[in-house]
Amino acid sequence: MNAEPEVGIVGEDPRDELERELSLSDAVFLVVACVIGAGIFFTPGRVAELIPHPYWILAAWLFGGLLSLAGALANAELGAMFPRAGGNYVYLREGVHPIAGFLVGWLTFFAIFAGTIAALAAIAAEQMVAWWGLSESWVVPVAVAITLVSSALNIPSVRSGARANNVASIFKIGALVAFCLIGPMIGGGDLGRLSPSSLPDAIATPTLVGFGLAMSPVLFSYLGWNSSVYVASEIKNPVRNLPISLFGALGICTGLYLALNCLYLYALPITELIGINDAGGATAEVFFGSSGAMIVGGIVLASVLGTLNATVLLGPRVAYSMALDGLFFGGAEKVNPAFRTPVAAIWVQAGVTIAILMLLRNFPSALDFTTFAILLASMADIVALYRLRVREPNRPRPYRAWGYPFVPGLYFAATLAISGAMIWGRPLECLVGALMIAAGLPFYFLFKNRGEREKP
Fold first, then answer.
1. What b/e string do you get for 95-112 counting C-beta neighbours within 10 Å, with b at 16 or more?
2. How far apart (Å, rounded) are the C-alpha atoms in residues 31 and 28?
3. Strand, helix or coil for residue 231
4. Is the sign of the CA dihedral 194, 197, 202, 206 positive or negative?
5. Homologous superfamily of domain range 24-391+403-449
């Protein structure tokens, strides 16, 4: 039997069969698990390559956190208004037009979630293959196996998954805090490396275009800051807990990201940090030697797999919400009667992820493809926020975005500028994202016409 809907929650979908089982701490740790994964270990080398300056590097990571917070302010208002599964699909459907909601939902499910899972699976597979001494040809098969196993593990109830996620997130936070505190105590670094005076003359001066391109790996590392909105129909007291989960988790993640980047700059000369594939492992080796690097490598792999698992949990809720409206492949709205999870949507997501792995085959391409899609969806959220404020000013808003209309406007402008830099510097990956949207149009009319034919 489904739990009775909580009294006083406005905007619920009466067709939703998912149960409200997630507490505030569950929601916070779900966001933390999704944000802190591979990015903070594997992307700092790309950031340093694009903006080789300690102040610019730290500014990029701080700006990424503030930009994510500005987006979280808008999503908190929208999520409290519509505490349903599906996130921005629902916001665009309600605030702009059903076709806008469909295209954003299509992009979110197929590009953002499936693309992120593909990138994370590729990272985990690359590390496993290296440990096992296998050739690079094994990376894609291992990534496919990881995707299938993680999908199967997410069929049981959301509550059991949340408990495991809470334990993993607490361990992750504790391990990173210990890394930042214990490493400098042992020695091996140099505080002078955090100053521009330590830069060699041969280092190029950073540019605004480079800063914009650097925001791609930075924003990828913050990906997941809005995770709790996708399970809003499963959060207890979402009007209160959903906004708090976004802001609290982002505060934790931004603080850890800045601390870790200071640690990397302290441990490694900028010439070594530039282009490095694993900043976390290299930093651990400076402080703890080869054995420490292996321990941190294990923590990194566990972190990546934890983030991948949390992302696998979230994505199917988008397809499930779309299917409730008849705007997805038939059967995706089905809920497992024993576990109350959208099992069909979970397997559809797994199939799409495997297709992306076969097409792009490596982490950097999947990263840029996914980040561009995130930027487009984030700008669409802001459009929905403004439209709803104008069209429905009297609709109940349990939470109102701080700084409206200026902060959302600044977020939109900054995201647009970063998108432009990505189009200039990564045209192929951005084209894939644009084609993904275009590919959704015929499916929208197909699903819409199917629904009209099935009406009595």
1. bbeebbbbbbbbbbbbbb
2. 5
3. strand
4. positive
5. Amino acid/polyamine transporter I (1.20.1740.10)
Residue in this structure with the two tokens 């990505």, named with its chain if needed: 422
Q: Is the dihedral of CA 183, 185, 190, 193 positive or negative?
A: positive
Look up residue 76 and give its amino acid. Answer: A
> Model confidence over 163-184: pLDDT tens digits?
878 888 898 899 999 999 998 8
CA distances from 266 to 193, 221, 428 (A): 6, 21, 35
CA separation, residue 80 to residues 49, 269, 296, 384 (Å): 40, 46, 38, 14
d(CA 376, CA 297): 33
What is the tens place of the pLDDT at every residue in 2-34?
444 444 465 567 777 788 889 999 999 999 999
* The model's pTM: 0.85
User: Exposed, middle or buried by CB within 10 Å (0-12, 13-18, 19+), for 13?
Assistant: middle
**Domain map (residue ranges) of the chain:** 24-391+403-449
Would you state the pLDDT for residue 366? Answer: 54
